[in-house]
Sequence to fold (185 residues):
Amino acid sequence: LAASRVTLRNWPTSGLQVDARFPAYLPLPAQVSRQGDLGDSIMTAVVLAAVPALEPSAGSATPPHYRFTDLGCLRLQECERVAALRTELARCGAEITERGDSLEVIPGPLHGAEIETYNDHRMAMGFGILGLKIPGIRLKNPACVKKTFPNFFQKLAAPPPHGLGAELRDGRTGRPLALDELLAQ
Fold:
């Protein structure tokens, strides 16, 4: 399991992609718009919102509540991503509500689950990141990342400074996977 804190080096700063702003949204604000704030990386933000903070906010009597808006475009891509996020996060025990083209997430205890990726590279990557924090996340068809990032899981498993040093295991056997087994083909 990877460390709780991840440091990003050499993050692109061209500003040509809205998703390049992702680090500016950590920690997550209470509301994030796909249209005005983040593009498709909002899917990773939704997944991360379900993870309870390590340290609760000082003086906070209620749990944080995150709202992700303007998600309609996500319904028309590789899969119906709004419903897919809601379904798979709920499978992990998340408190998540779909209202129109918005998702509302209240962080809470999560558990491992078998995650349907819907043959969608962004579902596989978002829930792959969740698996760094929540033991027992098992992805169906993780190789679907080959569409945009075939070595995604190699990057998670490679030792620093070229990766995160996470130990990734076979979901059926529990056997640790070697780097050469993690390239999506």
